[in-house]
From TrEMBL:
DNA damage among keywords: no
Documented EC number(s): 2.7.8.-
GO molecular function, one term: magnesium ion binding
Name of the protein in question: 4-phosphopantetheinyl transferase
Length: 254
């Protein structure tokens, strides 16, 4: 395994991208996936959803590689079900890093991934999406918060933010004391939320060698994947380019 810095125990890293940005990234490709992941993706009938799931699983490798110092090929998440003990489903985790949490999300051409110390959960939704109906939201989310959001002149955006926060919190385990961060990625028209035990969250997108997706082809080769110097070019950018942005904690899960 490639030597690298130890994971930062004080902060979580969250990456947001479009599905196309990830599929066009030369640092990751479908050959990095485990056999069970490829079988699961092959069974998805809708091409758009299939691409979203693939992109989310590749993005989480980029995120884990950046956070841990490993290469994307060494950053494959595994899954284990706490109820049946079976593998291939349940909450994802990084083998060999028991103190590091990992999460991923996808929705209609958007993908997100988060890695950080302890429990972590991430959710992404298109900013134009409107969750509902209210009777369903009241069953799934804190009733007082739903009522407050629904009372606004335009309740849709507030309800959406409430929804992504609830989904992120659920993916992180839902326990009390989780720190919640939420923001809007204007470049991708996405609303994102992260629930984490970390003190801070660094957010970013994906980049490589200063190029954009339009100048690259989709990587579809198989094999061991990119290692060494090639993997070191995996990078992240802030919402407007440049360095990643720290995201303030907005509250705690109750």
């Amino acid at each position: 395994m490639t030597e690298g810095p130890q994971p930062d125990r004080d902060h979580a890293l969250a990456l947001v991208a479009t599905t196309r940005e990830v599929l066009d990234h030369p640092g990751v490709h479908e050959g990095l996936l485990a056999d069970w992941e490829r079988r699961r993706i092959a069974a998805i009938r809708l091409p758009g959803r299939r691409d979203d799931v693939l992109a989310a699983r590749l993005l989480v490798r980029l995120c884990a590689a950046r956070h841990t110092g490993r290469t994307p090929a060494e950053s494959a998440p595994a899954q284990r079900c706490p109820e049946c003990g079976g593998s291939g489903h349940g909450r994802p985790y990084l083998p060999g890093l028991p103190g590091v949490g990992v999460s991923m999300s996808h929705a209609d051409g958007l993908v997100a991934a988060a890695v950080g110390p302890g429990a972590v959960g991430i959710d992404v939704e298109p900013a134009a999406r409107r969750p509902g109906p209210l009777r369903v939201l009241r069953r799934l989310l804190p009733e007082a918060e739903v009522a407050e959001a629904a009372a606004r002149p335009d309740p849709g955006p507030a309800l959406l933010r409430l929804w992504v926060r609830g989904e992120a919190r659920l993916k992180a385990g839902g326990q009390a004391g989780l720190r919640l961060s939420e923001w809007t990625d204007g470049d991708r028209a996405a609303v994102v939320a992260v629930a984490t035990e970390a003190d801070r969250v660094t957010r970013g997108g994906v980049t490589w060698d200063g190029r954009t997706g339009a100048g690259c082809t989709r990587a579809g080769v198989t094999g061991a994947g990119i290692t060494g110097a090639g993997a070191a070019r995996v990078g992240i950018t802030g919402a407007g380019g440049g360095t990643p942005d720290p995201v303030p904690v907005i509250g705690f899960a109750r």
